[in-house]
Each structure stands twice: as C-alpha cells, then as structure tokens.
Amino acid sequence: MGMIMINKTTAVVAGMVAAGVLALGGWFGYQEWSEPLEGHVLRGYDATSPVSTAQHSENVFTGRVTAFEEQRDIEGWTQDVYRVEVGSVLRGNVRGAVRVTYGLDEGTAVRLEEGSTYVFATNAWTDASRDGHAQLFQGEMRPVDSAQLAVRKDAAALPLRLSQ
What we know:
Blueprint: H1 2-34, H2 50-55, E1 59-74, E2 77-91, E3 97-102, E4 117-124, H3 128-131, E5 133-135, H4 146-156
Parallel strand pairs: 3-5
Antiparallel strand pairs: 1-2, 1-4, 2-3, 4-5
C-alpha cells in the first residue's frame, strides 16, 4: 500500500509540475506575441494590379520610351532610368519629356523597349528634378494596347488614395 501511495503522490506532483510549466510557458509566450511586432510594409496596395496601382499614383499617362539612360540606386532602390515622351495624360499634370524610373522589389525588371509606348503610373521621387518619377506598377510592363488602355483609363478615373 505504501508503494502505491508514493506512486500516486509522484504522479500528482508530476502532473502539477507539468501543468505549471505549461501555464508559465503559455504566459511567457503570450507576453512575447502580444508585444507589437517590428516590420516594414513596402506599400498598402497590390502593386501588381493596374487598378490598385492607379489609385495610389499621382500621374497615370501613356509615354513613349525615347532612351534608356542608366541604372542606379535611388533612395536605396536599384532603378532603371528612362527618358519618356508623355503622350496622353489620364491623371496628373506631367507634360513633355520626363524621367521615369522602373525597378522591381524582387528580381530584375525586363528592360523597356526604346520606341515603344507604355502606360505609366507614377509618383515623383523626393528630388523629382534629378530622379524623375517612380513607376509604381510592379507587374509585367508590355507595350500599350487598346484593352490595357481601357483598364487604365477606368482605373485612373477612380478616386486617388495616396499612401501614408
């Protein structure tokens, strides 16, 4: 009988210790996860969607690429810099020849073709006179066609929602 009592006592104590460890671990885990997490959000919209991108762009326009100027870092981002002759303006006030930068968050952007016309959705860089306008769309850039232009016109007509 004494041996059974010791085994019961040991089992009860072991169970209480296990429950305490689980409770304490859960409490510490909760404290760790309930603290605000540090992070960095690149943007608050879907950069691969022409509609979403247009709503966050100061300027939406068609433009013919006249020259690839260079590739360089601007504000920590590797960008291809193009000289673009503005065609039709769907939103904004860009005119004439502008500098447009295009670079992907991940991977390498396919070079835009000189002489081809594209739809650009841009915001000015901090130093717009030197760096020009940043292309916000992160999807595949293809020369503009009538279907793509119709989608972009509809998107540019939506209310502007500049990112914070």
